[in-house]
Design goal:
Helix content: over 70%
Strand content: under 5%
Shape: globular
Low-confidence stretches: none
Radius of gyration: 24 Å
Number of domains: 1
Structural class: mainly alpha
Largest sheet: none
């Protein structure tokens, strides 16, 4: 059906552009990004329904929106489970121990720059790029103190490293997760992007390192941190959950979200055990105090003033981000229902070619955000070989690093190092990040040449 020139379709485009302008200026106007896109999604699908009814199709819009909601539901539940695990690991002190260890080692500024970048690259494929960037940015801010130049450089390095590390794992970035769930790239095939991702970070980090002082940071007050009871069990459950998500998808051909939610169920059962343990300790403390005896675990109880509750960690999920995904997926799905994605696919993938288009996807990701760009590509579903799907996965993942607003990691760190790591402090090094971007694409064509023949 030709609806791309219908008045409702043109109005839908205007609504989407207006909503996304508000998203881009989120930091300036302090309006959460989920709000405008959720409203836009509602109006766009109302316009879809009006357009379809006007040509005599009374059920087409209902069927199409059902597909978009199903896609969101799978992504939502997968991310909710992953975020709950990450929040639980944070609550059990795992990230705090890592941060304190780095701070108290007495490393030089240049060593801290390289160590935090390397840890970000290794950690993001498992814990996701957003969480990784937030944890390690705290280290940079604490160590850097009033050395604002080092803090800005360290934050740029962490954002680039976290995004690069997340590009070769379905668990490292939202875009890679979307590609994996779409079935365009299998789990083990993502690892073909390890070398291009390493090149992406190393080229940029090597350039940035010349601007980092070789001196030592000012002394900081030594912090203490310890793992809470059950911390390593939570890590083991998270790894088991990843294995289940991969296995049900690879061997049973079921959605990976089933494995993630089953793992979340295991975590909830372990949470019940932790809750009962806290209650038992509390009773020991009460009885010990009544007898004039200090219970051995009294300190723990006082520190945790209330019993462990897994739903506290679930409530601390990034709900604004999750609702943003709802708005984006439905907005893009609505524009697809008008035929705009098919039109765009013909213009880009047919006229420009897959390679040029996939490279431009990374550039667009830096300006618009990689999530809607990647979802649009998946909705177009162009006929590409494995090499091209890996290319667009790489470019969407690392392309967002060129601007601070191009990735969730960059936006989050801007909020954490407000006034120091800014849009312009990042923009100053965009040329170096772009060199890393180009080098990673070249590395992909070199090491994965066979994938372009499949």
């Amino acid at each position: 059906m030709e609806l791309t020139t219908h008045w409702a379709g043109l109005l839908a485009i205007a609504i989407f552009i207006g909503a996304y302008v508000l998203v881009i200026f989120e930091e300036n106007i302090h309006l959460r990004k989920s709000k405008p896109v959720i409203v836009a999604a509602g109006f766009i699908w109302m316009l879809v329904a009006v357009a379809y009814v006007s040509i005599g199709d009374t059920h087409g819009a209902e069927e199409l929106i059902g597909h978009s909601i199903l896609e969101f539901a799978e992504l939502f539940l997968f991310l909710l489970a992953a975020m709950t695990f990450v929040n639980t690991m944070q609550e059990r002190g795992i990230f705090a121990v890592l941060r304190v260890w780095l701070i108290n080692q007495g490393f030089s500024l240049r060593k801290i720059f390289w160590y935090t970048g390397a840890i970000a690259f290794v950690m993001s494929p498992i814990a996701d790029n957003l969480t990784t960037a937030l944890v390690l940015a705290t280290v940079i801010i604490t160590v850097g103190g009033n050395n604002y130049k080092f803090v800005a450089l360290g934050c740029v390095n962490i954002v680039v490293a976290a995004n690069a590390g997340g590009a070769f794992s379905p668990f490292g970035d939202i875009t890679t997760l979307m590609v994996w769930q779409h079935g365009s790239v299998q789990f083990t095939e993502f690892f073909a992007l390890v070398i291009p991702s390493v090149v992406n970070w190393l080229v940029t980090a090597s350039i940035l390192s010349f601007a980092v002082s070789a001196g030592h940071p000012d002394p900081v007050v030594e912090e203490e941190a310890k793992l809470q009871y059950g911390a390593m069990v939570v890590v083991a459950l998270f790894l088991l959950t990843i294995v289940m998500a991969v296995s049900v998808h690879q061997f049973l051909h079921l959605p990976p979200v089933l494995g993630m939610m089953t793992g979340l169920g295991f975590l909830q059962l372990f949470g019940y055990f932790l809750q009962q343990r806290d209650r038992s300790k509390h009773q020991q403390t009460v009885h010990g105090s009544a007898l004039g005896i200090t219970a051995s675990h009294e300190g723990d109880i006082k520190a945790n003033k209330k019993f462990y509750d897994i739903y506290e960690n679930l409530r601390r999920a990034e709900w604004d981000t999750l609702m943003f995904f709802y708005g984006v997926i439905l907005c893009v799905g609505g524009l697809g229902a008008f035929g705009y994605l098919a039109l765009l696919s013909d213009l880009m993938y047919t006229d420009l070619g897959a390679t040029t288009t996939n490279i431009l996807v990374g550039v667009a990701s830096a300006v618009v955000d990689n999530i809607p760009v990647m979802f649009a590509v998946l909705a177009m579903n162009p006929d590409m070989n494995l090499g091209q799907w890996l290319l667009v996965t790489l470019t969407a993942g690392v392309g967002g690093s060129m601007l601070s607003i191009g990735s969730a990691a960059g936006v989050a760190v801007m909020g954490q190092a407000r006034g120091i790591y800014t849009f312009f402090s990042h923009l100053k090094w965009t040329w170096a990040i772009a060199l890393g971007y180009i080098a990673s694409i070249a590395a992909h064509f070199l090491v994965n040449a066979d994938a372009f023949k499949l």
